[in-house]
Amino acid sequence: MLMCKGNYGESFKLLGSSKDLPIIMTSDVYCLTTMMKCIALGAVEFLLKPLSEDKLRNIWQHVLHKAFSSTPKPEVDSAASLMQLQLESEDNNGVLKDTEGLSWIQDIVWEQEQPDGSVKSQLNQGSSLQGFWESGDQMNCPMETDCSDKHVQSNFVETTSHDLVCEDTLQEGQPQLSGKVMDKEDENFAVGLNAESNVYQHLQNKYGVKSSPSAAEQSIQGSDVNPSASSKAKKTKVDWSPELHRKFIQAVEQLGIDRAIPSKILELMKVEGLTRHNVASHLQKYRMQKKHAVHREENPRFSMLTNHLKPNMAYPSYYPYCGISMSTVYRTWTQNNGQPANVNMWGPPDYRHWPQPGTQPWNSYAGMQADAWGCPVMLPSRAPYFSYPQQISSSHNVYTANKSCYGTPHSSFDLQPDEELIDKIVTEARRKPWSPLPLGLKPPSAESVLKELSKQGVSTVPPRINGSKPP
DNA sequence: CAACTAATAT
DNA sequence: CATATTAGTT
């Protein structure tokens, strides 16, 4: 997740440009119009500060839900079409009145029209680090492919109505949002994916001679693919790409943690050019990390802020974040006086892509696995498509309850939540990723808006354009 | 000799 | 910094 302080304009751009991400907006000031904009543009939540435990929990739920959902939010589309519609009607001389109910649409359109190519998320960044091992470890996850294709899984945008200064966070974003994933080509090619530079250079240098450059090394980096390398395999290190690591993990798991020894692993990996030493080295690191991870697990105190700050190769990540890292969120939280949330709304979680019971490979690893991985072992017994009121803060339902709520949050942090609490909440969310999201507010449906429009004399509805960009 | 660990080198 | 290499041990 990404938290961003910025003006609404920028935030909206972000919203509009990152439809794959669940975005949560927060504000310390309630403003229906703004809220509606956010929603229309795809925010999954709009939270008023300060943050409360429940809101925090809610946020994490969104993260997890998003992690398991790969379909774009339909709401966004509908919002987009509304914008479209609005555009057209504006041409006809702004038929719409600037009423609370609809004015926001215009704003949305306006925002949308801004060329915003510049708005990119930088989330990817962290992912390369944090998400690295995690995604690699996902090999057992049925959704792996899906996920790896989505580096960014969630977004958290904070807006402060005070200063409308957009801080760099979003802007200097690094490129590619959903960025290039590794082409999953030939497996052998995996090793050399990242490079023609550092793929597999042999130690030849040192030992002077390496009798046959052996197809080995070359194939690692795809001799066929990379001629330059094939020539004089001069690669030095194995690039443990996620793909390669995946194979590694796969082998390890296949063998069993105790049987996983370099030679066997090497065997199972079936990666030409890879040496036992390479594997051993990697294994060593793997074990170390795992060990540490276990320790952290035992000492929850450290688990949170540290556990996710580093790539964790040993500890299978719980979810296919593949990019977004929890640490990102944490940093966000910790560096901003955790200002949290209040109103939340909407968003039927999409469980369609959730692993089905019995279909996940990791099911075969029994409870321990399932638990360790944090993957749901069963689906919610109740229809997931229904929204449930948030357990604690039913009063937060601003939209439906008409301002009955953004008053005083019940339990809110004056300061930032402490690690333990965060830890607890995240753990909870991890353990029960299938729990329904607290819902309440829903964006106006296309129907309702159309209805409203027709009331005002707008009857023609432009055909929906799949997408959101106005011509 | 394979495997492991820790330390150190690149 | 991630890997590789080396050294010492089992």
TrEMBL record:
Q: Does the keyword Cell membrane apply?
A: no
**A GO CC term?**
nucleus
Renumbered residue ranges of the record's region Disordered: 210-237, 448-471
Say which domain of life the source belongs to.
Eukaryota
Q: Which biological process annotations from GO are given for this protein?
A: phosphorelay signal transduction system; positive regulation of DNA-templated transcription
Q: Where is the Response regulatory domain?
A: 1-64
Subcellular location(s): the record lists:
Nucleus
Q: Which UniProt keywords apply?
A: DNA-binding, Nucleus, Transcription, Transcription regulation
Chief localisation class: nucleus
Q: Where is the composition biased (Polar residues)?
A: 211-231
List the GO molecular function terms: DNA-binding transcription factor activity; transcription cis-regulatory region binding
Domain (HTH myb-type) spans: 232-291
**Signal peptide (from-to):** none
Spell out the InterPro entries in the cross-references.
Answer: CheY-like_superfamily, GLK1/2-like, Homeodomain-like_sf, Myb_dom, Myb_dom_plants, SANT/Myb, Sig_transdc_resp-reg_receiver
Instruction: Please state what the protein is called.
Output: Two-component response regulator-like APRR2 isoform X3
Give the gene name: LOC111437350
